[in-house]
């Protein structure tokens, strides 16, 4: 029997791992003492095993190990010569620092980010635009203190908060920090350091006027919303050009007061914008005085891309069941989920045929260890079936009884 035209000598997982080639995993692991007292289960094997489990969607280490055992005859193609035990994987998730996998993710991102270039920033005239937000992941155990009020029973689940910055040119995380869910967002602004001339947009949860002042000194522009209880003095009002968007109601300079008794000040720009589509008034503030008001509003609107990224991650790599009950194991799993998301996005960027991301994840998950050329299959999923039909037609085209050929299908 002839092989499928999409057949290839490597399973799909190995085709994903090609994007990690060139990343010096040993050097990263050594930097964080990742191979300390390790005999067989090194960082590379740990990474492959976790990627296998995350993409397959396993809920426990037991499921993961059984899933690998069912593909034991294919694991040599992944460079695995050792079948990890449950206890070994559990210990590795607890001891090997999560920062190792964070560095691996960042190396892959830096190496391939240009392949993910997004044309949706055209028209804004901004070269470097970032969005910052956080997402909270609930935990069944109180490993990290959760946010919000106590339930009626007086108990509260634990929670971890992933503070994320994405480069809106590529729509992928370029900085991630983890904290307890109870920790306030704004404290993370102090860790944000961007190139001069960059723009960053975030919601009101990150309000910190002292950091806004630092951004101004460093030549970094921010776009956010004005809090309802903000104290400020109105300054010069700017003229609104006739060519401006009709939603721009006001454009003025303001002086924000903060600190003890409002003694510290920060000059900013306030834009009142009416969103006719949603019937809502927005008040934006920015330290950029040159950009047209409607483009400032558009920059904030682009912040929604980070919400879509969080939704994509949570829908396709559900972070409900963790392969470890400690903070380090949880952080490793989140990093691997982000890496899996990045690898599949890179595959998607190389395929011309339009695919919904969730559909592509489903195909890869179901055929992860199959010897299918993922690119040729995604470009033309029906190709192999057409070849089979054509061969059958050729076989019976000179038959004396062509009407019976259907019996062989």
What would you call the structural class? Answer: alpha+beta
DSSP helix count?
A: 13
**What is the helix content?**
25-40%
Query: Secondary-structure element order, as H and E?
Result: HHHHHHEEEEHEEEEEHHHHHH
- Main sheet: strands, sense, barrel: 9 strands, mixed
- Indicate the proportion of strand residues: 15-25%
| Poorly predicted parts | none
Shape: globular
Strand order of the largest sheet: 3-2-1-4-5-9-8-7-6
Give descriptors for this structure.
409 residues, alpha+beta, 9-stranded mixed sheet, 13 helices, 18% strand, globular
Write a structural description:
With 409 residues, this protein is an alpha+beta fold. It has a domain at 211-296. The protein is built from 13 helices and nine strands. A nine-stranded mixed sheet has the order 3-2-1-4-5-9-8-7-6. Helix 3 packs across helix 4 (61-69) and helix 5 packs across helix 10 (327-349). The two termini are 14 Å apart. 32% of the residues are buried. The model has no long low-confidence stretch (mean pLDDT 86).
